User: Fold NUDIX hydrolase from Kitasatospora arboriphila.
Amino acid sequence: MSDALHQDAVRTLQDWKSADPGQDQLRLDYLDHLAGHPDGLMRACLPAHITASAVVVDPAAGRVLLTLHPKVGRWLQMGGHCEPGDDTLAGAALREATEESGIAGLSLLTGVDGRPVPVKLDRHQVRCAGKDRPENTHLDVQYVAVAPPGAQELISEESLDLRWFGFDGLPELSDGSVRTLVGIARALV
Assistant:
């Protein structure tokens, strides 16, 4: 992992503020994790590591692209583990969204300074090390990615299915976290 990625993650989380006390507590927990783990963004950091994701939206059509995750069996936003070549959390989220959606030209929503800004944090348990391994914790930093007009998705080997859903028509197999993220994205676009 690059020092640049760790520094960017710390700066991103220090700069990001939420009016929601639960979100702000998660932000502080993420910062504590990074302070105690120089490798805190890498999959090998157990029992927890920071991940990056982005919900892909098409504002003109009022829809969101979700992936049916093979390990989780639910419809989720695009995202995953940071890689050694990632220099920023936003870059990791955009890379994951592009790889998993097959859509070129995605752009992350930005703040007043023009830099991509997270919209939500989510801590959840997963078995990313394998079915026979203990669960670990993903400390997910979530962004919104806007698809260019007329974007066509292309399913990758990381998905069982990839499908557009109307903002008001999310699938039954999506959890509360995804529904909250889509609601935030809809309000922002």
